[in-house]
Structures are given as structure tokens and as C-alpha cells.
Write a structure and sequence with these properties.
- The chain is globular and about 60 Å long.
- The two termini are 15 Å apart.
- By secondary structure, the chain is mainly α.
- 83% of the residues lie in helices and 0% in strands.
Length: 409
């Protein structure tokens, strides 16, 4: 395994910790800044929206530059955002810090996925992307529980100081371990290169279909997960003190699913996504039906995390595949799509609860959204097979050659 992947994974760990640990610290933050819980919640929503902006805007702005220094600058932006959060004297400054850190999030994962894929052989690209996203899963398994405990013991600011230190370590790793990479222009090998070349990737219907599958497939899982604490306490009957440990089990599922999903996607992306999404629908339905049973709920939590995150390497790889020789902006757009899915799933789950359908209703909503994602994926896979079947062999060879952007240096 290239050591540069470790640096990217560490960056992913810090970014994942920044995104999710705030959920466990909201009560302390709200009390410190004298705002309501709902107002404090905007520190989560504002972050997610800024991720989408950064994934598209920042990625588009840096396509002409060499990717390694871009990743380093993005990590500096991430460090600055968390430093502002740690020092924030009031709520508005805290929000600014969250937004600064979030702007780096989408671009870092989007560009980092392309860099990770360039470090390995063609048949190991999805696995390399999965290793980078292992940092994100580790943040859920270990970072969030311990970050919450640190914040509760030493004040919420201490958690953001710790994240700042993690960012500094990731920056050092990127500078020393990640190999030199080409700029988007050089990699595209096109005179028009740059942003214009990257935008050409969006002429592909498969890129748009892949992004839509990301929104629906990931959104369904996140919709069920957003209100999971209410489901566990109000439906299953677990105590509130048990919830953090159950979330660790969910995180273990994320870690395993990410690893296995990456290896499976290296063999066949479309088949992996079809199978995983189909099983995820079944898991969500079973979870909704058996949420009152504690052993079944524990099993469902692990499987929800596993199959929910097993889609991530394949979804990211599929977008990069059909973006051909200009995958950077499309990769960033797909990171934004994950966060659009988060917002969609959370909104749908909230709508069902508000409608008085109970705390299992977000799980049913998630199953419906995921089923729609499966339908889109089936259509996309069928269209891809039909296109490939009608394409002459020499054209297929030419297409493969056009994807040299993703070949190892």
C-alpha cells in the first residue's frame, strides 16, 4: 500500500471528525453561546451546505494546479477553520469557522480520490479510494465517541483543538508522503484542459446518473441514521447512555463495508452497486419492521452501516470512470452529492416524523429513497451495457486509453 494513502486517510479522519463530532457537543455549544438547540443545529446544516459549495466551487477553481500542493492548501484551510472554531468568542464566529473547514471538505475528498487512484494499479483504484475513506469511517468508529468524551470532560473547545492538531499532522503527511502529481491540465492532455476540460465530463449521461445514484443511495441510509437516537430510545427501548456504544457498532459496520465494498468494486463497479443497494433496501425494511426488538436492532445497525457505506468507493469510482480523462470536478461534484443526499434523507425523515408517523418512519423513508436509487442504478447499468455491446473493439480500446489520467505514475 502506498504510504501516501495513509496521509490522505489521516486527512479524511480529521475532516470526518469535524463533520460529525459536533452532533454530540451541541448541548455544550448551545449553552456556551446562549442559543437554542435548533440554532446550534445550523452548525451542522451550514457545514453540509458549505461542503457542497466547496466541492464544486473550490474544485473548479483549482483544476489548473498541481494536485499535491492543492491538497496541502486545502488542509491548511481545514486547520484554519477548526482553529477559528476553537477560539470562537460567539456563535457567528463559530459558524464562520465551520464554513471555512467545510469548504475544504468536498474539494479534499474529490481531489484526494483522484490522487489516491493515481497511486495504484488500474485494478486496485476503488480499493485505494476506500483506504482514503477509511479515515472517514474511523472518525465515526473512534473519533466521534472519544471526541465527544473529550469535549464533555475538558470543554467542547478542546475537541476542536485536538482536530486542529490532527490537521497539522495530516498536512505534514501530505507534504512528505504523497507523490508529486500532475495538474488537471497536464493529466487531461488537452489543449483546452483546465475548467473547460473538466466541464466536458458533465456531457456524459452516465456521470449524471452516477451522481443521482449517490444522492439517492447514500441519502436513504443517512435519512434512517439521522434520527436513529430517537428510534433507539423511543421504539427499541435502549437507554440514552447506551446510544453512543450502539453508534460505535454502526461505525464498525461502516469500516467493514467500506473495505469490502472497495475490493468488490474493483472487480465490477456496477454489479457491486446493484447488489449492495438491493441488500441495503432489505436491511432498511427489516430494521423498520423489527425496531422494537433489541437484538434485531443491534444487527440492523451493523448491517445498515456496512451496506450503507459499501456503496461509497463504487459510487466515487463510477463517477471518475465515466468522467474519463477529466475526473477532478466530477469527483468533487459527487462528494457534494453525498451531502445533498444527507440533506435529502434528513429532510424526508423529518417530514415523516412531523406527519406523526412515528420514529420508525425515517427508516421507511430511507428504504423508499434507496429503492429509487437502486432503480436509477439498474437503468444506468443497463444503458452502459447496451452502449458497450454496440461499440467496436477499437473504440473500447480508445476509451480505455483516454482514462490514462487514472493510471499510476
Amino acid at each position: 500500500m502506498p504510504v501516501g494513502l495513509i496521509a490522505l486517510a489521516l486527512g479524511g479522519f480529521g475532516i470526518g471528525l469535524t463533520e460529525f463530532v459536533i452532533m454530540g457537543l451541541l448541548p455544550q455549544v448551545a449553552a456556551d453561546f446562549h442559543v437554542t438547540e435548533a440554532t446550534a443545529g445550523w452548525l451542522i446544516s451550514g457545514y453540509a451546505l458549505a461542503v457542497v459549495v466547496g466541492a464544486l466551487g473550490l474544485t473548479a477553481a483549482v483544476t489548473r494546479f498541481e494536485r499535491k500542493p492543492v491538497l496541502a492548501v486545502l488542509m491548511m484551510l481545514f486547520i484554519a477553520g477548526n482553529l477559528v472554531s476553537a477560539l470562537a468568542p460567539d456563535y457567528s464566529i463559530m459558524m464562520i469557522g465551520r464554513i471555512i473547514a467545510a469548504l475544504a471538505h468536498g474539494a479534499f475528498f474529490g481531489i484526494g480520490a483522484v490522487v489516491a487512484a493515481s497511486m495504484v494499479a488500474p485494478n486496485k483504484k476503488a480499493g485505494a479510494i476506500a483506504i482514503m475513506f477509511t479515515g472517514l469511517t474511523a472518525a465515526n468508529v473512534l473519533g466521534v465517541p472519544f471526541g465527544t468524551m473529550l469535549g464533555q470532560a475538558a470543554g467542547w473547545r478542546s475537541t476542536f483543538w485536538a482536530i486542529t492538531v490532527i490537521g497539522v499532522l495530516a498536512l505534514a503527511g501530505i507534504l512528505t508522503l504523497v507523490p508529486k502529481t500532475e495538474s488537471g491540465d497536464a493529466a487531461a492532455g488537452s489543449a483546452s484542459g483546465g475548467l473547460r476540460g473538466e466541464l466536458r465530463a458533465f456531457r456524459s449521461g452516465q456521470v449524471w446518473l452516477s451522481i443521482l445514484v449517490t444522492i439517492l443511495g447514500y441519502g436513504g441510509m443517512f435519512g434512517a441514521f439521522t434520527y436513529i437516537a430517537f428510534t433507539l430510545t423511543e421504539v427499541t427501548g435502549f437507554s440514552a447512555t447506551t446510544v453512543p456504544w450502539l453508534l460505535i457498532l454502526f461505525g464498525v459496520g461502516l469500516f467493514v463495508g467500506n473495505t469490502i465494498g472497495g475490493k468488490a468494486a474493483d472487480k465490477n463497479v456496477d454489479r457491486t452497486l446493484l447488489v449492495v443497494l438491493a441488500v441495503l433496501v432489505v436491511v432498511l425494511v427489516v430494521f423498520a419492521l423489527t425496531a422494537g426488538n433489541q437484538p434485531m436492532t443491534i444487527a440492523s445497525m451493523v448491517l445498515l452501516g456496512g451496506f450503507g457505506f459499501a456503496t461509497v468507493p463504487g459510487l466515487q469510482m463510477r463517477v471518475m470512470k465515466y468522467a474519463s480523462s477529466a475526473p477532478t470536478l466530477a469527483s468533487g461534484a459527487n462528494i457534494g452529492a453525498f451531502n445533498v443526499g444527507n440533506a435529502l434523507g434528513a429532510w424526508m425523515g423529518g417530514v415523516t416524523i412531523t406527519a406523526g408517523l412515528g420514529y420508525t418512519s425515517p427508516i421507511w423513508a430511507g428504504a423508499g429513497i434507496t429503492l429509487l436509487g437502486l432503480a436509477v442504478m439498474a437503468f444506468a447499468a443497463a444503458a452502459a451495457r447496451k452502449h458497450d455491446a454496440g461499440r467496436p473493439a477499437d473504440v473500447e480500446s480508445s476509451t480505455t486509453d483516454s482514462e490514462t489520467e487514472l493510471q499510476p505514475a
